[in-house]
Amino acid sequence: MAEGRRIDSNIFADEWYGQLDFFDQQVWIGLFARCADDQGRLLDNPALIRAALFPYKDIPCSDIERVLAGFATDAKIVRYAKEGKRLVQLRNWWEHQPLQWARPSKWAAPDNWTDRVRATIKGVYQESNWKPQVDSPGGEATLPPTVDAPNLNLNLNLTETTTALARENENRITGASENTGPLFAAIEHAGVLLNPRLAEQWGELADTFGMALVMAALDEAVASKAGASLPYVKKVCENCKREGRMPGKRNGPLPAAEKPPPKASEPIVGWETDVFTGKRERVVISNGTSSSGSP
What we know:
With 295 residues, the protein is an alpha+beta fold. The chain is built from ten helices and ten strands.
């Protein structure tokens, strides 16, 4: 089921949309808001679309078919068949969806179409053909114009400033090394916006407990509804480190490099009496060795 979808408010002033009848308008918005996946793709099945959009109405499937046929004629959707499935691709999907994250579609893309992917799947960060977050109708990120303020003796170029901030933000997300990139991506995917200090704390946690354990603990925290809580994940890591196991669904022994060192055995202390001199000596036995000394 689609979640967190967006329809540009300018759609109500769009000439094509305005000429549709009310039912067709409802279907058009519903394809974005209820039916399409993160790539703007869905099954071309009028019965499924009707069930998703009109669960309380007795709408004939033929009405849904008529609307889809009209959208295809107007070049608003692509209807195609691949891998034994009849599918629909919304052509202007990315004009409406300034997504921070987009998972791959389970359905094959139409010909001459390139998906945009940015997601963390089973703890692995994946990115393909990703572009900056877009808010402009043209589908490209917009930078502020250069500001000329001679009266204030300021020489500010907001374009350069914005570009520098964008680079800094990208470095913060991906991390100083490739090792922390997937971790930072998973944290932000869980809804936590990282700042430099928080990113440093998560990096220190990974250095202390190892990336595999921290990623597994983060998975458990998200699954338990605690979210990407640093204190929660730290506590899980401490417990697992002490018990020598992995958390949650990855329950099992820690990787060899991450097992806690064995505790040194407690020394055994006793006293012996020399049978010839009658002198008592203190004997300390530790790790199979012994040493002695007079009291």
